[in-house]
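Q: I'm writing up a methods section and want to include an example of the input and output format. Could you take the sequence below and give the corresponding predicted structure tokens, formatted cleanly so I can copy it straight into the document?
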Amino acid sequence: MKLNKLATSLAIGLAVGTAALTAHASPIQTITTSTGTYSPFGGFDWASNGVAVATGFSLAAAGQSASTDLTFWAKAASVVDPDQDPLNPGLAPVNMGILGGSWEYTVVAHMTETAICTADNGAGLCTQANFILNSGTWAIYYDTTPDSNRLAGTGFMDGVKILEGNFWSGFAGTFTATATGGTGSNTLHGQVSWTDNNYINPDMMGTVAGTELKFGTDRTDGGALPTGTPLTQRIVCNRAAGTVCMQADANQSFVPEPGSLALVGLGLLGFGAARRRKSA
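A: Here is the clean output for your methods example:
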């Protein structure tokens, strides 16, 4: 799936546009479900109707800056091979399980960014902003009782945690807004700090994530607003109050431990990376 579908008004510090992640490695990477072990595993294509909520975006004029907070959550539309192909026959049983509701993979990411307004409309609306990632964490879960609810923000963290990490600080993105909508883009790199070898092998070392955010009339997911996040029971989407709720689409790939390979990724979500920690 193309990363051109998820964003929402991260104009608030969520710069995200399109993102794609690819990873190439020598060892064969495998993913294990309740029905078997499959390969070659390369990462996840997160559903295009993922959700991102940014808070603290209070910019109104060029030159202003603010610290923003972003939470992103989604479930996987498919698993992909190292070339980002979800149709690899070796992964068909995993993807059939996703489509058939036998299991689901979910991701929750939390990031802090510095937003800098670079242009405004002269009437109190920041129309373009740059975002710099200060910190970011993410975790991926495998759940054999699919129950995620994207608008309520529930059911995204009740599975088995199979991968976890942080995003490296310093990555930047941009966001462009109008009076009724907005889109953004960014690419994040990071390290994997936890791999559960009961589900993913070998240990993953690096990750690249890309996302696209859409807000208001630029959304393609129907425009329904979330009422909660996986980290917060209740939220109120209110752009004027600095809380922007967006559609988010993303892809994420991984590089295994034996480090002689290249991480290539195009995408954005303005957050990314972490130190690696092996599972016990």
